[in-house]
Write a structure and sequence with these properties.
With about 300 residues, the chain is α/β, with parallel strands linked by helices. It has eleven helices and eleven strands. Belongs to the LysR transcriptional regulatory family. This is LysR family transcriptional regulator. One of its GO terms (molecular function) is DNA-binding transcription factor activity.
Length: about 300
Amino acid sequence: MYYDELKTFITLAEVKNFTKTAEILHLSQPSVSLHIKNLEKEFQTKLFIRSPKRLRMTPTGELLYDRAKQMMALYEQTKQDILEHHHSVKGKLTIGASFTIGEYILPPLLPDFQKRYPELELEVMIGNTKEIVELVKSYQVDIGLIEGQTNEKELSVHPFMQDELVIVASNRHALAQKGEVTIGELQNEAWVAREVGSGTREYFNHFIRSNGLKIQSLMIISSNQGIKETLINGNALSLLSRSVVARDIEHGHLSIVHLNHPPFYRMFSYICAPIMENKQNVRIFLETLQHNWRS
């Protein structure tokens, strides 16, 4: 297996620049060129089309890129399986998490997990649901935790936790000061919402459409913290996970707008490529995840 060459090829395919690839991999630029030439000789095809202004993959380069990601993932899994054979949890676990999970659900879990497996290097990459799905598909993370939906057939999707969504506003907002409000009283209000691609935004759109609500104005902020600060300083509403606002409610910075309506729930899910489900580090993390929310 051309491990170093494939690693160089994948990096070059993603950054599309020989100099940057050399910097990332701590190689000389001639070494990068040699790795690509070795692969082109091995597969008897051109992998890149070079021009003064840009570098792009050929159709066979794109085919190799997808297969190379799978080969590298299989190689890493094999290394992990050998470590497992020696009864030691080592190596690295990369977790992709959507914002609500990555910022509020996952952090309380990680210190104890790291304490139990001190030789395991943990990395958490946070993005919206759409971004996490792409990271899982491209094997840039071992497992993804998402709050939205995905129809990617090549991924395994398993719910692990129920999450409640609540409408929140500043303490000064007229609706926050009422004991209970109807859905109809939410007409023509200003809202602050997450960006398209976020699981929370997906649910917000569903909530607005299914209740026939008209929006006076809509502000988009791609950060839960940014939304909360905007609510505190303004006069708008937002639909957020209860876990996101729990501390702000407790400290009196925000208020829940109580509806005479059943609570809103959604499911958090973990997703991974089938090849990753048997990886030891993924399995032990899933056991911890599932045990935590069964308790």
